[in-house]
């Protein structure tokens, strides 16, 4: 075999190897949508559920806090009795909202369902922020009735937190249980505790 023949053979071999290797390399290096794995999808679902749970819990406690503010505004003479309970509810609002989960979507291109859900959520958030927050229920003119209504609101909020225990992650469930128990104690102090 001549030198020219060997060169031609080598050149042809290198060209063939490059032709088969390069398309594989370029296909692997091209960025494209990556389909998320089952674990990533499940982690995202759990994070979204926890974020929604936290939002519901904080909203329930914040509504209760607004009821306290309305009762204090309507009956300033009840301040010595209501102020410590109001401070406790304010601490619950803060604790329930701390450590909120930030949901990051999986790296795949969003599915039409996920996009529709995200747009619906964004629309709902935008419309919720555009309209004024609902004002708390009117406070009764009679102080004793106002205390009974506030106790009923405490029980309702406590029941809401207790119901959420079923789906809450363990650490958040412990916090919800504690807040629910405190709400039950507040309801007692607002009604039965005053008679003792």
Notes on the structure:
The chain has helices spanning 3-29, 38-74, 79-97, 112-130, 143-164, 170-190, 192-195. By secondary structure, the chain is mostly helical. The longest helix is centred in the first third of the chain and has 37 residues, at 38-74. It is rod-shaped, with a radius of gyration of 30 Å. The chain starts with a helix and ends with a helix.
What Rg do the Cα atoms give?
A: 30 Å
Largest sheet: none
Number of helices: 7
The fraction of residues assigned to DSSP E strands is under 5%
Listing every helix as H and every strand as E from the N terminus to the C terminus, the arrangement reads HHHHHHH
Helices and strands: which structural class?
mainly alpha
Total beta-strand segments: 0
Taking the alpha carbons of the first and last residues, their distance comes to 113 Å
Average the pLDDT over all residues and give the rounded result.
77
- Name the shape in a single word: rod-shaped
The poorly predicted ranges are: 101-131
- Residues in helix, %: over 70%
